[in-house]
Structure formats: structure tokens, C-alpha cells
Amino acid sequence: MSADLWGKIAAYLHDVFVMNFDGWVVLGFVAQGLFTMRFVVQWIASERARRSVVPAAFWFFSVGGGVLLLAYALYRRDPVFIAGQALGLLVYARNLYFIVTHGRQTAAEEK
After folding, report:
1. Which of 18, 56, 65, 78 gives a 20 to 30 Å CA spacing to 7?
2. Nearest 5°: phi and psi at 86?
3. Structurally, how many domains does the chain consist of?
4. Residues 58-96: pLDDT tens digits?
5. Does any domain span residue 79?
6. pTM (2 decimals)?
7. d(CA 86, CA 68)
8. DSSP code at position 25
9. 89 lies in some domain
10. In a domain, 76, yes or no
11. Domain-embedded: residue 78
């Protein structure tokens, strides 16, 4: 690649990762970290069980990451990102509702 192209790439990366760095970017990275943890938790649980498992922690990380990413998307005014995170939060919340109500039912049935 030419030096000019490398210069343009370097300028772009500097603009994106240095000039635009603020508290919202930190929030976005924290949110993305929570979202990543849900996959790590699911992977570890599945490896331990030797089958596909989706633990409750997956959904808690999903809600945490989803709420923070929605806040970030609202701040950035990104309609695609807003719609995706808002709809995802409905699914995550519904799954947590099932876990909580099923857990209560199981506890009541064991008495």
C-alpha cells in the first residue's frame, strides 16, 4: 500500500478512536463488554454441561448491555441501532420474566 493510503487510514483511525473519544464512547465500550460477557457465560455453561445451555446470567448480561447500548444509540441518534436494541430488550425482558415465574412455580411445587 502507498504511504498516502496508510496516512488516510491512520487519520481515520485517529479521528474515530481519539478525537471522538468521550464518556459516551466509554459507556458504549462498557455496554459492548456486557454483551460480550453473555456469550462467554453461555459458552462456559455449555462446555460444562456438554450440551447447549442458556443460563439466566446470559439474559441479565443481555438486559444490562441492551439498556446501555440503547442509551448510547439514543445519544448518537442512530435509528437502526435504536430499533435493534429496543426490540432486543423486549426479548431479554420476556425471557427473564419466564425464568422468574418458572422459578417461583418450581419453588411452590416443591413445598
Report:
1. 78
2. -65, -45
3. 1
4. 999 999 999 999 999 999 999 988 999 999 999 999 999
5. yes
6. 0.73
7. 11
8. H
9. yes
10. yes
11. yes
